[in-house]
Amino acid sequence: MKHQNPAGLGFVKMHGAGNDFVIIDTRGASQRRVTPALARALGDRNRGVGFDQLAEIRPDDAADYRLEFWNADGSEAGACGNASRCVADLMMADLGRDRLRFATRRGMLEAERREDQVHVNMGHPQLQWDEVPLAHETDTGRLPLDGGPAAVGMGNPHCVFFVPDAEAVVLEELGPRIEHDPLFPERTNVEFASLTATDRLRMRVWERGAGVTLACGSGACATAVAAHRRGLTGRKVVLDLDGGTLAVDWREDGVWMTGPVALVFKGVLSPDWLETVR
Ligand SMILES: N[C@@H](CCC[C@H](N)C(=O)O)C(=O)O
């Protein structure tokens, strides 16, 4: 990414199906590293740039690069599918290639460009519970459930509820309660999905550390895995999210996820603004 500016800190703003990201390349030896305070300040949609996640590009000996992910509240995330696709799009253009490998906290992942879409292999799911023993007001009848929720790890935690109508879920109410349930000591991302065809789901998401977002790639993967294990779908599923459509294919070599990516703008954080970040 050739956007660094010695006077400030260069960044790229992108989104994938409305899941929006700031991307900072700190591979240069003199580059300022991302800290929780910088992520929080930059994630502020009024006083910073605003994003669902910040992706930091780091050097890696065994891969084309390494990615670290930060939520808007300054917490770190082990995985981010849509940001992985956005960064892969930039890096493939820079490297003049259609495939690459990148290291993450959960291990080595791979991405490919096929036609105009970027596909990422999010690795194998970590199956925690097919039915989470969640004692919650979700059982009161206000939100009818199709079975208990499933807990699936995609390098980050997801709690997936199957409901008759995902549109009817008040995400702002249920999301934070489940995110902070004591059953999830590291908090969790929360997905609500309903089956709309044998190979299609409507899904909405509350993200750990970011709140309601328009899409979530790892959440789409977790939901597709849970839907297949529950016998609702095959291994290939299309998911309609608030911000667009993602496709997931759970193959032998891992869970592949694809969808659109868009570059919004490039910018430079001013040294004066950076000074205010403590
Ligand atoms: N938007 C992401 C997931 C982001 C990480 C999440 N909020 C966490 O804390 O695990 C995606 O596209 O996967």
UniProtKB/TrEMBL annotation:
Cellular component terms (Gene Ontology): cytosol
Keywords per UniProt: Amino-acid biosynthesis, Cytoplasm, Isomerase, Lysine biosynthesis
Active-site residues, Swiss-Prot/TrEMBL: 80, 216
List of residues binding substrate: 19, 53, 71, 81-82, 156, 189, 207-208, 217-218
GO biological process: lysine biosynthetic process via diaminopimelate
Compartments, record wording: Cytoplasm
Site (Could be important to modulate the pK values of the two catalytic cysteine residues): 158, 207
Enzyme category, top tier: isomerase
Coiled-coil ranges (or none): none
Reaction equations catalysed: (2S,6S)-2,6-diaminopimelate = meso-2,6-diaminopimelate
PROSITE patterns, per the entry: DAP_EPIMERASE
Gene Ontology molecular function terms on file: diaminopimelate epimerase activity
Pathway linked to the protein: Amino-acid biosynthesis; L-lysine biosynthesis via DAP pathway; DL-2,6-diaminopimelate from LL-2,6-diaminopimelate: step 1/1
Superkingdom of the source species: Bacteria
EC number(s) per entry: 5.1.1.7
Chief place of localization: cytoplasm
Short name of one Pfam family: DAP_epimerase
Matches recorded under InterPro entries: DAP_epimerase_AS, DAP_epimerase_DapF
Annotated family: Belongs to the diaminopimelate epimerase family.
Assembly, per entry: Homodimer.
Function: Catalyzes the stereoinversion of LL-2,6-diaminopimelate (L,L-DAP) to meso-diaminopimelate (meso-DAP), a precursor of L-lysine and an essential component of the bacterial peptidoglycan.
Protein name: Diaminopimelate epimerase
